[in-house]
Amino acid sequence: MSENTDPTPFADAANGDGTPNPATAEHSGQAPEAQAGQAAVDPRIAELEAEVATLRDKWVRAEAETQNVRNRAKREVEDARQYAVQKFAKDVVEAAENLKRALASLPQPTEGEDNILTRMREGIESTERSFVGILERNGIKAEDAKGKPFDANLHQAMAEQHSDEHAQGTVMEAWTPAWTLHGRLLKPAMVVVSKGPAQAG
User: Fold this and answer.
1) Are 107 and 140 in contact (CB under 8 A)?
2) 85-194 placed in CATH 2.30.22.10
3) Confidence band of 155 (pLDDT split at 50, 70, 90)
């Protein structure tokens, strides 16, 4: 029996001219057209994935910026709500200080003093306490500076004096308190500051 010399089953995957051998392509299970199409699809997938990554990054940045805008708007609204009455509050604390001055102008209580003077003092004291309470409930507070270290953020020095009882830089006397509105300075305290003990000679 003669030996089969047909070279087809053992042919190379490509013909001599470099084109795919149809017989080999058939046995590989993928047509030449499918192989070419797969080669074209892979770069497109990579391009789309890169585009998705870029869009995701832009979305994250935009979302962060939007949140920052919301936070800024919220703070501005809160500030406007709290400090819109700042000018009015300054005028109100003037009235509170005038009540304090009215009390200070009255003579000290004495035994057997006139009943009218006693009732006047009690009436002004009651009004002053009630007024200060109303201010505090609305975020307006007074801070007595006497005996505290001088703070340029809260105090305004009206004079400096030597003192053997107060260290240098201590508030010896406060003519008015420091007034704040929700922690923000409305009106500084008018104070006298110690220069420390006078030097001999």
Assistant:
1) no
2) yes
3) very high
